[in-house]
């Protein structure tokens, strides 16, 4: 009768392998399945007539790098594709529908229909983005502009709630010039800009300090916005108050420091040569 002892190690090994699984011995494929090429979003931000515009067409999946082209339809006048970005200055308002096609390094392609609205600029406005919750200490409040329309300087007045004071104002653009003062609980801020200001730009951070915990709501503002030639682009009077003085103490020439001039060297007097006798 044959001995069963030599079979015991083999059976034990088989049972061990069955209990522990066989990972690492059954998988011999190194193929990785990749997501198909697709557009994560088809929402394109609104563009404003005559305003510089840039929007990125997002592509994912497949194998990068990607390229995007206009497959059919018409882009808004003034806009073109540059790589995967749509940029330019739209010159005609309306709703535009077009199809873009993305391709990747593996030559896969994906087409997608998109819509873009070109709208007239809304009225210029300056706004403070107030914190949603109660503030107890120094807090920085962003001041932003909508539809600047060539604004190069402005005067803003803010009737502060009781117990709130302004401790600091920090221009976001380090080249901008800002002057401010507090008078009877009203902040007056004059700012001028060396270059242009774009729609949605954050202009300054206004640091405020409450004397006690307070929740800020609906700021009472008035402002005058000026173009490069000093004309008023937009004016808003504070409710119950006279319009903001149009002759602001900051205009473009004052806000933009004059370039340094080269000093003129003194000219030595001309002394005639002595004549011989």
Give a structural overview.
With 277 residues, the protein is mainly β. The protein folds into 2 domains: 47-119, Immunoglobulins (Immunoglobulin-like), CATH 2.60.40.10; 125-255, Immunoglobulin-like (Sandwich), CATH 2.60.40. It contains 2 helices and 16 strands. The protein has a 5-stranded antiparallel beta sheet with strand order 12-13-10-15-16. Strands 1-7-6-3 form a 4-stranded mixed beta sheet, with no helix packed on it. The protein has a 4-stranded antiparallel beta sheet with strand order 8-9-14-11, with no helix packed on it. Strand 6 (94-103) and strand 7 form a beta hairpin. The longest helix has 14 residues, at 7-20. The protein is elongated, with a radius of gyration of 34 Å. The termini are far apart.
Q: Could you give a short description of this structure?
A:
With 277 residues, the protein is mostly beta strands.
Strand order of the largest sheet: 12-13-10-15-16
- How is the CATH topology of the largest domain named? Immunoglobulin-like
Q: Which ranges are low-confidence, i.e. pLDDT below 50, for 5 or more consecutive residues? A: 7-31, 242-271
Oligomerization category of the chains in this entry: single chain
Kindly provide the name of the CATH class of the largest domain.
Mainly Beta
Question: SS-based structural class?
Answer: mainly beta
